[in-house]
Design a protein that fits this description.
The complex is a heterodimer of chains A (113) and B (112). Chain A is built from no helices and eleven strands. With 113 residues, chain A is mostly beta strands. Chain A is globular. Helices cover 0% and strands 58% of the residues of chain B. Classes of the chains: A mainly beta (113), B mainly beta (112). At the A-B interface, strand 5, strand 9 and strand 10 of A face strand 4, strand 5, strand 9 and strand 10 of B.
Chain lengths: 113, 112
C-alpha cells in the first residue's frame, strides 16, 4: 500500500529565515505530487505540482519554491520567510492519470514570527 | 469563475440526529467530485469520489450523492466520532494536472 510522509510536523521560524519542508511517498512510482496551503477560513490553495523529476509548475506567485529531486520526494522551500507564509502546508500525491483522488500527508504547521 | 461552495459552514447535531451537508459547484465540465474528512491538525482523509449525476457512494454512516450542480453528504445517526470538518473538492476539464478546487468545508460537531 502507498504511504505519504511529511516533516517536520511543526515549525516556528523567524521572519527572514529559510524554510525546507519535505515530503516522500512510498509504495508507488511516478506519482503526481502537490503542495497545498490551508489558511484559516479559506479553502486549500494549490501552490505547486509536479508530474515528474525536475518538473515543477507554480500556481500562485509567491515567496516559495518547490523541487523534486527524486521520483517520490517533493520539497517546499523559501530563502526568506515572510509573516504571511504562516499556515498549514499539505503535501499530496495521486496516480499519473487525469482522474482519481488525491491522498494527503499529515501536514506541516508553519508559524513565522 | 470556477467555484465550490459548501453549506452550512458549521453544523451541530445531537448523537443520532441525521442531517446532510451540501456542496454546490460551478465548473465547466466536471471530472470528479471528491469528499474528504479532516480532523483538527491533520491532513484531509479521502472518503468518496463521484463522477456522474445520479451516482451514490456509501461508507458506514455516510452516503454521498451527486446531481448536475451539487453533491450531498448524508450522515445517518451520527456519533461523536464523526465530528470533523468535511471538505468537498472538484476536478474539471481545463484544470491543471489533477488539481482539485476545494470548498471551505463544513465543521460538524456531534454531541453525545
Amino acid at each position: 500500500s502507498q504511504t505519504i510522509h511529511q516533516w517536520p510536523a511543526t515549525l516556528v521560524q523567524p521572519v527572514g529565515s529559510p524554510l525546507s519542508l519535505e515530503c516522500t511517498v512510498e509504495g508507488t512510482s511516478n506519482p503526481n505530487l502537490y503542495w497545498y496551503r490551508q489558511a484559516a477560513g479559506r479553502g486549500l490553495q494549490l501552490l505547486f505540482y509536479s508530474v515528474g523529476i525536475g518538473q515543477i509548475s507554480s500556481e500562485v506567485p509567491q515567496n516559495l519554491s518547490a523541487s523534486r529531486p527524486q521520483d517520490r520526494q517533493f520539497i517546499l522551500s523559501s530563502k526568506k520567510l515572510l509573516l504571511s507564509d504562516s499556515g498549514f502546508y499539505l503535501c499530496a500525491w495521486k496516480f499519473q492519470m487525469n482522474t482519481g483522488e488525491l491522498f494527503f500527508g499529515e501536514g506541516s504547521r508553519l508559524t513565522v514570527l | 469563475e470556477d467555484q465550490v461552495t459548501q453549506s452550512p459552514e458549521a453544523l451541530r447535531l445531537q448523537e443520532g440526529e441525521s442531517s446532510s451537508l451540501n456542496c454546490s459547484y460551478t465548473v465547466s465540465g466536471l471530472r470528479g467530485l471528491f469528499w474528504y474528512r479532516q480532523d483538527p491538525g491533520k491532513g484531509p482523509e479521502f472518503l468518496f469520489t463521484l463522477y456522474s449525476a445520479g451516482e451514490e457512494k456509501e461508507k458506514e454512516r455516510l452516503k454521498a450523492t451527486l446531481t448536475k450542480k451539487e453533491s450531498f453528504l448524508h450522515i445517518t445517526a451520527p456519533k461523536p466520532e464523526d465530528s470533523a470538518t468535511y471538505l468537498c473538492a472538484v476536478r474539471h476539464y481545463g484544470g491543471s494536472q489533477g488539481n482539485l478546487i476545494f470548498g471551505k468545508g463544513t465543521k460538524l460537531s456531534v454531541k453525545p
